[in-house]
Design brief:
Two copies of one chain form a homodimer. Chain A is globular and about 65 Å long. Chain A is mainly alpha-helical. In chain A, helix 3 packs across helix 4 (70-82). Chain A has two domains: 1-37; 38-158, Arc Repressor Mutant, subunit A (Orthogonal Bundle). The longest helix of chain A is centred in the C-terminal third of the chain and has 27 residues, at 104-130. Helices cover 60% and strands 11% of the residues of chain A. Chain A binds a DNA duplex (30 and 30 nucleotides) through helix 1, helix 4 and strand 3.
Chain lengths: 171, 171
DNA sequence: CGAATTAGCGTAAGCTCTTACGTACATGTC
DNA sequence: GACATGTACGTAAGAGCTTACGCTAATTCG
């Protein structure tokens, strides 16, 4: 909570806001799977999608592709193995690596989900357009922070004695 | 993980992305507090800020203002009471309610944090401008989803037999 | 060639929210 | 006045990530 960036719009914390947004989207997707009688969870999407696109991937490759830690991928790996949707094998070229692939059952499910995923994607694009490009804005936000971190910007502002600051206005 | 909305930019899941962004911002702010020798956590900001602005507020008022559940506020309340930054009292007009206020120590800390918060806010606005208005885009995203949910949009797309769809393109 | 360093991955525990539930209180209805 | 319903809030437990750690394997360096 209390993550403000920047904190306007009624002072709603952006962190909680972002999380609520993503939770909402996931919940709606989960609801669609249920409505279509498909035993699937949106949080598996990334791994299943990547394996459908790339045949076989390691835990660390998936982590990089999905932008999460290898631990999160490992946790999803365990859930998908339990449901027999993927399988793993040792990498003959590197004993440290595990190669994940879709099982026959997993491929079948991905095929089944194809139309729904396509429609989800179309709907997501539509909403993003209406919102004026959230994804692009987020990419720019990441780039801006990479260029100069928030902490560095704050330090610059605190070290600028000549500049006259507006009166304090917390939000 | 695997939350795609929409899923491009290397397929990074927007959910994880949003969370990483907010975690990053919080961590940078926490780092600044440490650098200035101030025992404070960015996650308390919302509650402390609201109490500084509004004198006294109930748990549910804070929850509404901050856009989180009352449970999250209650959890923060406990942490801030443990650190003697706020205090609570019964509401004479409604025995169900607890009124939270800044303690003397809390007011002193808020005063101490004033300049840093202001600089943080300026930096946040600056980054938001460079990113092309993330907060505004997020507000529009919420509004678009309120207008028509993602699930409703998906259903419309699946129920559109006349429209010819492009070949399946998972991302 | 052996030691040091880096890489891959699984497990445990923590973070910061959430939902579910229960208790107490306030309000509305008959 | 009694009962039903709604509200406020605290606690327990869960979600979905994270960090920390440890083990094994591969690579680098002297």
């Amino acid at each position: 909570m209390s993550r403000d960036f920047p904190s306007r719009s009624g002072g709603a914390a952006i962190g909680a806001r972002l999380r609520r947004l993503s939770d909402r989207i996931d919940r709606e997707a989960d609801g669609l799977y249920s409505a279509f009688g498909i035993d699937f969870e949106q949080r598996w999407f990334g791994v299943m999608n990547q394996l459908a696109l790339n045949k076989a991937m390691s835990v660390s490759d998936l982590a990089t592709a999905l932008g999460v830690t290898h631990v999160a991928v490992s946790q999803t790996r365990a859930a998908l193995i339990a449901r027999k949707l993927i399988s793993t094998a040792d990498d003959p070229g590197d004993a440290r690596r595990r190669v994940l692939t879709l099982s026959a059952q997993g491929r079948k499910l991905v095929k089944e989900l194809g139309l729904l995923w396509e429609a989800l994607n179309d709907a997501a694009r539509e909403v993003d357009r209406e919102a004026g490009g959230v994804a692009v804005a987020l990419a720019r936000l990441e780039a801006a922070l990479d260029k100069r971190s928030l902490a560095a910007r704050v330090r610059m502002k605190l070290d600028a004695p000549a500049k006259q600051r507006a009166p304090a206005s917390r939000i």
